[in-house]
Specification:
The protein contains 8 helices and 7 strands. β1, α1 and β2 form a beta-alpha-beta unit.
Length: about 250
Amino acid sequence: MNRDLQGRVALVTGASRGLGAAIARKLAANGAKVAVNYFGSQEKAQHVVEQIRDSGGIAEAFRADVREQADVNALATQVGDTLGPIDILVINATGPQPFIRIENLAWQDCLDQLEFFVKSPLFLAQAVVKSMKERRQGRIINIGSEVFERGVPEFSSYVAAKAAQLGLTRSWALELAPWQVTVNLIAPGWIPTERHANEPKEAKDAYARVVPLRRMGVPDDVAEAVAFLASDAAKFITGQKLSVNGGNTLE
């Protein structure tokens, strides 16, 4: 399968750790020049950059709050000036994901999630789509979640925002198809990363028992799916949701 990304520029948001870091490393391993976006930790982002460089790849770190339009516009300009026009946009950045009962759920809790999964994707897409249309090529890949299919109680603010993100994906895919720009979404299951370091082993084991493959995934599983959708092997795939969860949802 051809996953040669030589000569292409990828921007991965929220790439200083977890799934984002794994995606950045995988895209670089397939030849892309990678912009590692971060907000909180320059040190962690630079560590990802150094890992990529040590493996022979090309990467730079860029700080931006992807919830702020001015930051996103500046980010796109900086990436373009440093690495070249963005060919692959991976929308991965996220924030806290609290469980909140309906009785305690505030509208602001919903807005906090929409900031990452509707507002940020909108600003990011607007920052890259003009160039993608002009060049008649581009990949926009949202990182979603299986929670939309599974529901998940006391998690409605996050579930609703992830549903909205899938809606953006489907609508943008049809809108941008005439310019050969594809838009897809990858929906991981629960894949432990640094943010889950304090989760009890019992909870992870309980989740793994109900996954048809009887195990949890690893960040590289998601990264491989991103590399596929970013490549020419997926040039005829758009508007789709690819679940990476061991069969935990069937659609």
